[in-house]
Structures are given as C-alpha cells and as structure tokens.
Amino acid sequence: MESFAPFAFDPISVFRDVFRRKSGYAINEPGNVSPKPGTKAMIVIAKATTPVNKEGYSLQVSPSGIYISAANEQGIFYAFQTLRQIMRMDALPDAKGEARTWQLPAVEIKDYPQFQYRGLHLDVCRHFMPVDFVKRYIDLLAYYKMNRFHWHLTDDQGWRIEIKGYPKLQEIAAWREETLVGHYSETPDVYDGVRHGGYYTQEEIKDVVKYAAQRGVTIIPEIEMPGHAQAALAAYPELACTPGPFKVAQTWGVFDDVFCPNEETFTFLQHVLDEVMTLFPSPYIHIGGDECPKTRWKESAFCQDLMKREGLKDEHELQSYFIRRIEQYVNSKGRNIIGWDEILEGGLAPNATVMSWRGMSGGIEAAQSGHDVVMTPGTHCYFDHYQADPAFEPLAIGGLTTLEKVYSFNPIPSKLTAEQARHILGAQGNLWTEYIDSPGKAEYMAYPRAIALAEVLWTPADRKDWNGFVQRLNGHLERLDGWKVNYAKRLKVPAAIIQSGPKGLELTWKTDLPGQSIYYSRDTTGHSWDTATSGESTLFSNPGHIYYKTDNSGIKEINYKPTKTRNATISSSIPPSGSYPGRQGVMTLGDGLTGKAEFNGEDWCAWNGAPFTIGISFDSPTAIDSITLGLLSSTGSWIHLPQSIEIEGSKDLKTYERISGWVPSNLPAGRNQITINTPKTNVKSLRITIYPLKSIPEGKPGAGHVGWTFIDEIGVY
Questions:
Q1: Residue 693 pLDDT > 50, yes or no?
Q2: Rounded distance, CA 368 to CA 424, Å?
Q3: N or C: which end of the chain has fewer CB within 10 A?
Q4: What is the distance between the alpha carbons of residues 259 and 326, in angstroms, rounded to a whole number?
C-alpha cells in the first residue's frame, strides 16, 4: 500500500492528545506503547488504493498492532474516532501522569458514510455563545463523524461577526437592550432588563475555522438576507425601505423591516460577503432567504418601480431577483449559495442548494428540478423542540421531537427517483436559541439527539436498528459523562403508547431502558401504585385520570375523558399532514384525550391547505345538543384558528342540513376548547367543515401563507 503524503491536517493529532491525557503515555515513545514485546509500532497508517468511499476507512486491531487504511486524511480521522470509542478513553478521567493498562478487542472494521453532508447548526444570534463552547460543539459533532457546522451569525436579535468595513455592526447591531422572558406566545410581554450581545472578532473566527478544519469539519457561515435583518438595519437604517429608526429586536418572531433591494444594499452585502469569504473557505455561503415579509416592499415606490423595470409579477419574484443577484456575486468568487427552502418561491437561483426546513416538500421540489438538497425538516431535525413530555422539560419553542423520532428519519423521500435522490446530499440538525440561553442548555437540547442523527446519516437505512441503538447509546452516555456534557437524560422518562377504541384506553408501557419497571395508578391522591414492565399493556375502561412513573422520573398524567365519538367512525375529506397525523389518524379526534400547547404528531391532527370536512358516523341515531373542538393557536409556528366552522347533520346518511356554525373571537394563544351549541336532535352522521385561515397577516411569521389548523379532540354531547 502507498504511504501518505503530508496531510492537509493531521488526523492523528486529536487522538494523540486525548491518548496522552487519558493514558499517561505519548504515542510512539519507544517502549511505551508497543502492544507486545518486540513490536516496533503501535499504529500503522496506509493509503487505500481502491477506496470504497472517500471518507471511508478500514480498521484492524490484532496482537501485532493497529492498522488503518483510508483514501485520505478524512477517513483516517474517522478511523481514530472509532478507535477512541472502542477504547472508551473519553469515559475515563485523565490519567494525571499515572500510566494505565489498555486492552483492545481484536476487530476488523470497514466503514463509510451513507451521506456526504452530515451537519449540525448553531444559532448564536438569539443568544450569544462563547468561543470555547463553539469549539466544544465542534469537538462533539466531529467525534460523531459529522463534517459540517452551520454557524448562524446574523439575525434580527444580533449580528455576531466582525465586519471591519462596517464598524457599527459591532458597535450597535451586536447588542440588544433586553430580552423577552418566558414564551413568545405569552401575554403580556415581560423583559429581563439586561443588555445582551457580543460578536466574534475576525481573529477568533480564523481560530475557530482552523480548529474545525483540524477535525475534518467545514464551517458554513450564514448571513441572513433579505429578511431577519433588523439588527443590521439598527446600525445602518439607510438599507431599509423606510427611514427608521430601528432597534435590535428584543423578542422573537418575524419582523416587517427587511433589506431594501436597492444598489446601496447590494453594495453593503457584497462588501460583507467579501470579508466573510476571506474568513471561511467553505464552498457554500448560506444566505438565509427565509421568512421575509413583503409588507415594506409592497409599500415602497422604489420596489414597485423596480418590479416594473425588471418584469417581476409580484414580491416573491422580487425576492428571487434579490437572491439571484447575490448568487451571481458569490459565484463570481468561486463559491455557491445555500438557502432555506423559501428561496424556491418566485424561481430558484440557477446554482443554489436548498436547505429544506418546512417539511420535505421544498427539498423534493428542488431535487426534482436538479438542485442539490440538505434535508432539515422541523418534524425530525429541530433540536430546539421538546424531546420528551414538556411537563418534565425546560422551556422550549414547542413541538415534540423525540430521540426515537430523530432516529426514524430517512432523508431520502420515497417519491424521488434514483437519479433525483442523488441530489439529497444529507441532513442537518438545527439548534435555534430563542429559548436556549446558555451552553449547558444548548448541550441539553442537542444531545443525545445529535448522536441519533449522526447514525442516521452514517448508516444505511436498511441497517438501522432502534433497539440496538438504544443499547449502544448507554455506553455513549458514559462517554458524554466523561466529557461532562449536560445531555438530556430522557431515557429515564416513561412513555405510554396509546390505543383508544370502544372498549376503552389501552396503554402499552414503554421506556428505552430494557426491563425497567413502570408504576401506574388511578388514585387522585395518595397513589397506590400497580407495576408493569416495559412492553406490557393495560386496559382502562372508565374515564378518569391515569398516573404513571418510573423509579427515577416525575409523575406523568393522562386525562381520559371520552364522549359519544368513542363509538363513532371518524373520517376526513383530506388526510391530515404526514408530519402531524395523530396517533391513530383522524380517529385520534375521538380518542378521549386532549393535546397540549406544545404540539406534536400524536395528540394533534393538522391540516395546511384547502378547506376540509371531518365526518363522524354513529352506529345508531345519537342525541346531540353540543359539540366541542380542541383548537390550537400558536402564531409563531404558523398555527392559527380557522376562519370558520360549519356543522351539518344527517338522520339517514344521505341528506344533510346545517345545524350550527362558529367563527373565532378573541381567543388566547395555546389550546382552546370551543363549544358549539346545536339544536337538540338525533343524528346518524355529522359533517364538520373547517375553513383554515386563507392568508397569515403581514407581520406574523409565515405572512401570506395558509395557516395551519390543529385539532386534538372533537366531543359530542
């Protein structure tokens, strides 16, 4: 085998440093590291002449030594990460000069990744994170063989990168006066009164870029445009369509004031990008492109005139014009742009790569058009969502993305052809920090979910095994303990798989730790506990509260309150979204269980699009005089109350008559249970037609899009 030329980076260096610290030995010191007498070298590295994959490697441990073969330094680096994990060195305290005895199993491993893009994202705008933590974040993702770090550096709440040509970005845009306390949906707003901010100097960024490169990680910087620009506009208001003044945002959400597409703005952004591209050698520059309200553009005489001159039919095409101009400039510097899936709207820039976050549909559309895609749907890849029951978790933005859900993710949609699927480069986990105000909480939200995503991106889909992963994860949690990572110990929280039907509520008890006992009770006080083990089922026929726990968890509660829909058949003219289908499809709407404001795909069924009708059919004529619906309002997540609801009834399953209706009034954020009174009547069937909000108002997240409608339970009384 051919010997390596000098490496662009030294893939053994990180291993060498850790080994010295943990073992007390220095690799290649004579007499110290020979696995048996007479051996000249502990580790032999050679170049593979016929590599299966450019990031792949082979690793052989035998009595005579450790042999590594790979096509390049990236493969060598990953071989050493595997070696670190096999040796469990990270789970042990430092040797502090006292030599340890090491034993390794004899193994032969041939390994390579499924996807070329394996990434983690970190938002440092909503809450600034120090350089030392950014390096630690890179250490961890590299340890799990991820190779992209997406650094979100600019947003409404702060500008975090030094730009020497525009000093006000450091003086003004990097700082906000105070920060929202509590959840965005809560009213009235409360602020902490504490100035917050910071930025990375160019010297610090160079250091972090070098640090990442030594670990085989490419950093992709993100400079948001044309939206999420309020911090920049606070420093340079002349870049807006209105005169200002502007403040660095102190709360979360989407703001109407965005970059104006004039020559002054393009000059500013080109100069900014020049400095950014000098600092980051990444072939990709992320330009954002998401959540750009068109309010100011619609009101701007300049924008309207520009649209006429350029033959642009609407403001979406104006955004495409903006993105294309930036792409042309970035391409002229030998780089490519990547952007969130909104860059598809109005026409996609010719060489752009799409990062699909609003589900996978944007990625599918881009791949079918021949564009490269990084999948990062909120349903599986948003690590700012809750990861277990919110009752036991710190404040998060919403949603529920469990470890198991992350592990179930397949970045390649089944509807793509083999040729189209080649455009799926991989996937990325996103960590937005509106509700993550410290490095410790960032680690808590990222791990162990990042480990699950790392395996998704490295391992072929047909070789994934959830039970095997959970068993292996226990060993990795020891390694995280050794790193002193503040990971979420969510494996200790019990779950109940719910199946509701005419006989009652069947709960299948579950934990991710094999053989763990679960305790359950119907007592409202005192709690006399019965015991089950993970995998067992219990049937509850009567309404009421059900409590359950494990030895090391808090008490969880289910309130089972079935109505006449328990014995009905429920259907829908349009199936709920695949992202939020309900635990039993639309039958979830009659299972006797209500959802929480932290929406997820089990308690809630969700629709996004045209009006739809829910049908409820009874076995026999059924008396009704009121109907309840559980509806969710969470405008920050594009979830709105319907515009209206119409209810029809039928006594013969053929002829339907209107019996009632509803239009929203001033209802608070969160879950709302509405009651619709009806004339006292007997029916064999109901038709409930829901008319979603046609267009989210300007100034709200998702402005211009159809609002999502979330329903958790329909009660018939």
A1: yes
A2: 10
A3: N
A4: 13
Closest to 453 in 3D by CA, of 133, 114, 124: 114
Say what percent of the chain tops pLDDT 70: 95
Q: Could you name the CATH architecture of 494-555?
A: Sandwich (2.60)
Determine the Cα–Cα distance for residues 269 and 260; give it in Å rounded to an integer: 11
Catalytic (active-site) positions? 155, 228, 291
> How many CB atoms neighbour CB 292 within 10 A?
29
CA atoms within 13 A on the CB side of 126: 22
CA distance 308 to 311: 5
pLDDT digits (tens, 9 = 90+) for 699-711: 777 888 899 999 9
Alpha helices of 423-553 — where are they, by DSSP H?
439-446, 449-458, 466-483
Whether the CB-CB separation of 268 and 166 falls below 8 Å is answered with: yes
What is the reported pTM? Answer: 0.84
Does the 13-111 domain belong in CATH 3.30.379.10?
yes
> For residue 84, how many other CB atoms are within 10 A of its CB?
18
Q: Encoding tokens for residue 604?
A: 């809630």
Mean pLDDT estimate for the chain: 91
- Residue ranges of alpha helices (H) inside 396-493 are 403-407, 418-421, 439-446, 449-458, 466-483
Please name the CATH architecture into which domain 564-716 falls.
Sandwich (2.60)
Q: Is the peptide bond before 188 cis (omega within 30 degrees of 0)?
A: yes
Q: In angstroms, rounded to a whole number, what is the distance separating the alpha carbons of residues 185 and 49?
A: 58
State the average pLDDT over residues 377-393: 90
- Per-range mean pLDDT, top range of 501-510, 520-529, 672-681: 672-681
Choose which CATH entry (3.40.50.10900, 3.20.20.80, 3.40.630.30, 3.30.1480.10) describes domain 117-490.
Answer: 3.20.20.80
Give domain limits for the chain: 13-111, 117-490, 494-555, 564-716
> Do residues 43 and 16 make contact, with C-beta atoms less than 8 angstroms apart?
no
Computed on alpha carbons and rounded to an integer, the radius of gyration of the chain in Å comes to 28
- Binned at pLDDT 50, 70 and 90, residue 491 comes out as low
How far is 241 from 302, CA to CA, in rounded Å? 8
Q: What end-to-end distance do the CA atoms of the chain give, in Å?
A: 78
Whole-angstrom Cα distance, residue 490 to residue 493?
Answer: 5
Query: Is 265's pLDDT higher than 90?
Result: yes
The DSSP-derived string for 643-697 is SEEEEEEESSSS--EEEEEE---S--SEEEEEEEEEEEEEEEEEEEEEE--SSPP
Strands 284-288 and 336-340: parallel
Q: For residue 4, what pLDDT is reported?
A: 40
Task: Give the count of beta carbons closer than 10 Å to the beta carbon of residue 467.
Answer: 9
- pLDDT at position 3: 39
